[in-house]
């Protein structure tokens, strides 16, 4: 890790508090907890379950052996990082005696209290921690399906899709247009598309000076809008154009063959590179297990992150309805800890500890320049709420050095959260 | 059985003495002396939203006789009105979509009355889980108005019309970034006419979301259509389709 002082690293670590009191290092017996999904929420949960209650039988079901984080994947698109630098694996968790089953979980059989794997094998459980993240909703944009995504990448799950979009950007002629299509709320990482536009514009300014970025947005406004638009103007001039819903920015149809998009009020756009981020929903296993509501996401009991309809199933991360917390890695990590604390308390026959959360979303405007938005969350009248007055947003007129300081903090946060989730080898 | 009791039983919603909150008077006036139809009107709206500034709703009314009047209301605001509509013709069933503004969790209420004097009521609670992470934390004054976007395409035997006017729909209750109260600024009405005359007239109120959006299904054989929004100062935004 470069350029990070010990103080910054500590600041990063302090952002990730662990709230379970030591007293609950509890007699939870040898219960078996199945963790489904080894992303930010699932890896954090598996690690903290084992750390807090070593005798628990913790099984992580995750088909991948290598996980690539979405955070900092926009840097990869801009050539500022290698894809490999986003790679995480499960070796430290295995060393901690978490059993990693490298398979897809097909569904949770709530009646039998078993998880059915893709291959048909059934695993018994006492509790499940479900953290499968998102799936694209392929039903919304006509003509946009898995096949189309191999020509018009979403790159909204990191890995092969990130590499594909990067290659397309590199292969594009100077002067080519890059379109980023953004869905309506709710979706993973509200400021993510705008950070992406910033970093792609940075890449273009270096490598394809005649190229532009056009953002076609299904929304009328977006996260940190004033900060982004001011940054774009200052750093990239006219290189980034944002078209909101009122300007006919909502894409309704895609023609992958022609690399063409059709918008709601009839405008057509062709581009050299199209990054189509479609609407999303909880990963499929959630619906197949009967846990989602009509929105496609999983309702939870906010104090414990138990599925509203199934008390033995805890759900954390992007798959659950935790609004007003955004769907972020920061939130996923914090929610996983609350869920683990509640799950352990439940196994030990105790009341769940009271929970409080914070989220910070950093977004890069350019290499070494970032802005952030942060807020605290708590439970009021059994609802998850944003605590009044807790919102902080980077100022529009920053004191000298602030954008650079926030970029360093973002790096520190990223290092800390990855270590907090996937651990490190002894 | 009293009318109110009937309504409560039909809706099986949260039972309270004043089930419609600040919309109570408007609802009572609308229903005065009428029996509420138990079937025909349905409202599709998410049970929770992240952003109360833009809540998408779809409504469907079956077996109604023209002309139909509709009132869209919300239960939790000083001014409960969202919009009033008068619809002369449609491709059955009557289907409309728009976006409403719900600053907090509350009931969304739709009232309908048709040419035979029958009345309908549909309501649903919407939970607003608003996150300041999603949208600008304070209002930005609507800098520009228009254009009126519109699109017409075949849909079954009829035509699907979608339209959106860029407009701040300023309520006079919001503050700008520097703390100044933004002056009230709402358009007066929106009209759609076809070859056989007026098809639809809408009066918008505070509860209609900024950049008012309307989608509706119209009968074929009405084109060309003329769409026209009229702003508070009389300025008109018009489009002819196709
Ligand atoms: C471009 C981009 C930039 C971002 N930047 C940031 C940022 O700077 N800060 C931030 O806080 N957040 C950021 N995010 C958001 C962040 O990536 C997500 O919120 C986070 O990954 C959510 O964690 P999760 O555990 O819910 O899901 P994921 O991390 O996606 O993990 C889900 C895991 O579950 C597995 N899985 C799914 N289904 C099954 C199944 N049936 N059986 C077994 N395993 C299964 C998947 O393989 C996957 O490994 C960004 C997102 C994007 C797209």
Automatic annotation (TrEMBL), chain A:
Residues 32-144 form the FAD/NAD(P)-binding domain. The keyword Flavoprotein applies. Pfam families: FCSD-flav_bind (PF09242), FCSD_central (PF21706), Pyr_redox_2 (PF07992). It comes from the Bacteria. Residues 354-422 form the Flavocytochrome c sulphide dehydrogenase flavin-binding domain. The keyword Flavoprotein applies. Residues 162-278 form the Sulfide dehydrogenase [flavocytochrome c] flavoprotein chain central domain. Keywords: FAD, Flavoprotein. One of its GO terms (molecular function) is flavin adenine dinucleotide binding. This is Sulfide dehydrogenase (Flavocytochrome c), flavoprotein subunit. It comes from Pseudomonas peli.
UniProtKB/TrEMBL annotation, chain B:
Residues 34-133 form the Ig-like SoxY domain. It holds the Pfam family SoxZ. The keyword Signal applies. Residues 1-17 form the signal peptide. It comes from Pseudomonas peli. Residues 156-240 form the Sulphur oxidation protein SoxZ domain. This is Sulphur oxidation protein SoxZ. Keywords: Signal.
